[in-house]
Design goal:
The protein is of the alpha/beta class. The protein has a single domain, classed as Nucleoside Triphosphate Pyrophosphohydrolase (Alpha-Beta Complex). The protein has 4 helices and 8 strands, in the order E-E-E-E-H-E-E-H-E-H-H-E. The strands form 2 sheets. The protein has a 5-stranded mixed beta sheet, covered by helices on one side. Strands 3-2-7 form a 3-stranded antiparallel beta sheet. The longest helix is centred in the N-terminal third of the chain and has 13 residues. The two termini are about 20 Å apart.
């Protein structure tokens, strides 16, 4: 049985359309890349959690999503030894292309973050390690072509293949 967990992430996009992502290695699904974000604290809305997670994981205090929701999705994985079914809200936010700031080594190690990078649209269309959600390249390409969606895309439950790409 999986424990329900609510989370929020932020697609931080630079002016050229690159997205900022972290590389993780999870015991159940292996290496994958995901945007800054994490679980909601008690009483927190998804937008509040998204704003907090950007500050905590990047050190950037001047970036905050405005509430534009790109998509929602659910996926299963094991977090700290506990099987969860995570429902995520993914928000959009503009960000200058820069490095994280501050001493983040401890928090990153605690969260299983191995490294970070900016992914260009070209990088995302090539062969690479799994991205969460797997539909992210298509979603961001649509944002570049048409702007933010009028209504968030509901990806539903996305199955994670063992040690792989969702």
């Amino acid at each position: 049985m999986r424990i329900p967990r609510r989370a929020a992430r932020v697609a931080l996009l630079d002016p050229a359309g690159s997205v900022f992502m972290f590389r993780y290695d999870n015991e159940e699904v292996g290496v994958h890349w995901a945007m800054p974000g994490g679980g909601l604290d008690a009483g927190e809305t998804p937008l509040e959690a998204a704003r907090r997670e950007v500050r905590e994981e990047t050190g950037w205090t001047d970036i905050a999503p405005d509430g534009t929701l790109l998509c929602q999705w659910e996926h299963d994985f094991t977090r700290a030894g506990v099987p969860v079914r995570q429902h995520e809200h993914i928000f959009l936010a503009a960000a200058p292309r820069r490095d994280p700031v501050g001493d983040l080594a401890g928090p990153h190690a605690a969260d299983g973050i191995l490294r970070w990078r900016w992914w260009s649209p070209e990088d995302m269309s090539g062969d690479h390690e799994p991205l969460w959600p797997p539909q992210l390249p298509r979603l961001l390409a649509d944002v570049q072509r048409h702007g933010a969606p009028a209504r968030p895309v509901d990806l539903g439950h996305v199955r994670n293949d063992a040690r792989g790409s969702g």
